[in-house]
Every structure is written in structure tokens, then in C-alpha cells.
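chain below, 431 aa
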Amino acid sequence: MARNPSTQQLVQGILHPSQGGIVMGLERIQGLLGKLGDPHHQVPIIHVAGSNGKGSVCAYLSSILTCAGYQVGRYTSPHLIDWNERIVVNEQPIPSMELLNLIEQVQAVIPLESKPPTQFELITAAAWLHFARLRVDVAVMEVGLGGRLDATNVCDRPLISIITSISREHWQILGDTLGAIAHEKAGILKPGCLAIVGSLPMEAQVVIKERVAQLGCQAVFPSPTTIIESPNGSVHPWGECQGVNFPLPLAGKAQLYNSALAMGAIHHLRCQGWQISDTAIQQGMANTRWPGRLQWTTWHECRWLVDGAHNPASAQVLRDYVDSYLEQIHGNNLDGQRVSWVMGMMATKDHREIFQALLRPGDSVFLVPVPDSDSAPPEMLMSLVNSMGLPLFHCQTYPDLHTALITANGFSHSQLRVLCGSLYLIGHLCL
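prediction:
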């Protein structure tokens, strides 16, 4: 995926400065969509919420349904490199000029005297408009934040609502307990509509099940995909779920759960008469790409693992994958298996818990700012790391990502180099 700075700059240039930030609520987006002819009522949707795994599930679903011959919209956030990535039809990002035209059309219906919508609300409205005009057969819509008051939560009858996982994230907005966060995620569930729910902590599971009962939803809690023997010549492991065998191109144990959620949705659609063959499932799974998540890449002739882990739960998934990789290479004894971490994080994240999940004695930490964002100051992060008392080999701040990567490339004592902490940071590696 090549960087296209013109799109990023042009889109940012036509967004009003006051449209940044997070403002929860449905009144603004509903009013905006009403002035656009209610495009969200013209598009069947699969709605996907959760703390982690949303993007992977959306990627699986859109790829499978595209391979089955349907016209499929996909809306996800945040983007990795360019705004185009957020609005996709049949795996193709929206053309730059089309996106700019849509944004201008949405901007044109905003009353001058009103407070402008947020960036997310504006882009979401543009996505609905795009999908409605193309008359997509289905739009796979990822929740931006929470669920109940998210700008995507404007449809009364989704085909399927999916809650992938629940962990402590955005607690400043969603609440500081898993139960409170689950309440917000459960806001996407609708009366009588199918709910597919992932593996949740008990506190969150109780809240979700209570909401399911109140709404009279049919609810499905899929078991994870089972690993099976891969066919000869396959470069990916294979799994079995819902009676279908398929490749698993996305790395990490979490994909056993994410793929099962996607397959649960596919099974329901097949039962409803959608024509989705086993071959389409296998091809769709094989074609699935979700960059920046447990992805291997090469930078300046050195191998790097990059991952957008930005909350404690996703950090633990990353650490588990790192340990599994080191075990494959060096055996069960992980003592002395040092990792170099190049990290930058947003200011609102749970920095200490993320460090606790990732760092081990002897590791090296290269702390950088996340460009063009509300970044946590690297000096503050270094102070926090030092207060944890871990005997690290190296911990230092760097003025930019490039300098940190160059320095980390020269640390020959590390068995593994990892870039993580923010998807926006990952995007600057030019995957």
C-alpha cells in the first residue's frame, strides 16, 4: 500500500478545525442524514462493535461476500495511511476525488448557524451516501467508539449485530468498568435482530445477555475456529468452522475467535438465502488483508513485526504472539530473548497497563511521538517506564519515528524488533 499524501492533506484541508475531537450522540448525524435523504435507510448492514477484533471481522466478511458475487461496502476506522481506506466497495478504496466530492456534498447541507458535525460524523455520512448511491447489497459497518451513541448506530433493523470483544478502553468516555463499557457496546443490538457475540469477560457477558433478553434477540456465541491440518503447499494455517475448512491469513490466536464470528454471520446469511458457496468462503478468507495488525515487513533490510496494539487487551495479544514466535525460534526458555520495542501512543491510552503487558527484563524501548495527533509526550512515557523498575537494556526518547527505527536496526542484541502503540504511527512506516 503506497502512501498518498495528497488525499490525506486534501481531505484534512476541507474539514473545519472545529470538526475534530469526539462528541458522542446521534442527534447531529440523524439530522445530517435526514438532509441527505436518509441514505442509511437504503442500505442493508452488518454492524460490528467491540474493543478489539472489529476490523478483522469486517475484513473477513467483506472479502467473503465480495467473492460470493455481492456488491459489498465496508466502513472502518481509523485509517492506516489515507482516508480512502475507511470507505471501501468490493475491496477497493473510494477514489480520492469521489471522497472529496462526497465530503463537500455533506458539508453543503450543514446549516450555517449550527455547530458543525465532527470529522467522524461527516465521514460516516459520506459513507452512507456512497453506499446508497451504489446500491450495495450490504454494508459492513464498524463502530467508531462504543456503540450506543456512535454515529454508525442509526439503523433500526441491521441484518446482524456483532460484538467482538470487550476490554477496558476509552474509559474516559464509555465508563471505567467492563459492565459500563458493555452497556455502551450493547447499544447496537436491536429488537428481534440476530446478535453474534464473542468471548467476553463475565462482567461484560452478564450485561450483554441481559440486553439480549430485554430486546428478544436471537443470540449466538460461537466457539472459536478449530485449527486443522493445512493442505500441501499452503502458506497459511487452516481452520474449520460451521462445517467449512478455510485458510487463516491473519496472524495470532485472536483470529480463531474473529474468524468464528465472521463465519457465524456467514452461516446466518446462508440460512436466509444468501448464495455463499464454500469456495467463496475459502477464497474470501484467503484474500483477506488487514494491514498493520501482527504484520511482518522489512525496513532498511531488517525484519520488523508491526502491530497497532493500543489498549491493554490488544497489547496482551501482541505479547502472546511475540512469545509464541520466540518459542518457535528459540524453544520454551524465553529468558534472555530480548525484544526492541519502538513505541508511540496517544495521550488518552492506558500507558502503564500497555507497558506492563509488553515489556520484559532486558528489552529495549525506543519512544517516539505519534505524528499529527494528540500524542503522549515521549518524555512522559519514559518517566513512566522508568518508574516501573524493569531492568531494561535501553530506554530512550527519539524526536521522530525514522530516527528510532534507524537506531533500533543497529541493536544486534535483540531477537525481535516490534513497532507498535498506534495505528497512525504504523501508517508512517509506509506499509
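The chain has a mean pLDDT of 92. Residues 295-427 form a domain with the Protein-Tyrosine Phosphatase; Chain A fold (CATH 3.90.190.20).
thats it, cya
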